[in-house]
Amino acid sequence: MRKKGIEERLIASAEQALAIKRGKLAPAQAYDLPRTSRDASAEKAPSYTKEEIARIRSALGLSQALFAEAMNVSLGTVRSWEQGFRFPEGAASRLLQVAEKTPNALTIYLVDRPKGDQAIHGATRKSAIREARRAATSAGHRKDARTSSSHRGKRH
Fold this sequence. Notes:
This protein is mainly α. The protein is 60% helix and 0% strand.
């Protein structure tokens, strides 16, 4: 049996492709190609008013601080959105749209703190601030004491 030449193989392949196209032959392998901009387009993310943003946050049952964490933006950003000083753009608008249409998509990433940890967390932070202030104050006193003793009797 002789080996088919390239021309014969190309003709056989073209006939096979035509039979598949006409539905007379099943393809040997199916391909799932990714969707491209030739096939589809994404709708533009909506613009949100300050009232709509507050309504979305409220519907999720989140404080501004926790909503900001969930959205991965600063608390100041959420406040300025809800006060109407700034408005979400780009990915933030799309994420608000997702949160509005599928609330669970945002809230599944929230992790509850163990009970009692809220008080400890706040107390620890306050203690740390107090301790830092004490350290700064006592360092200032030590510096003042050194400065005044080293400059006794000297004129500037």
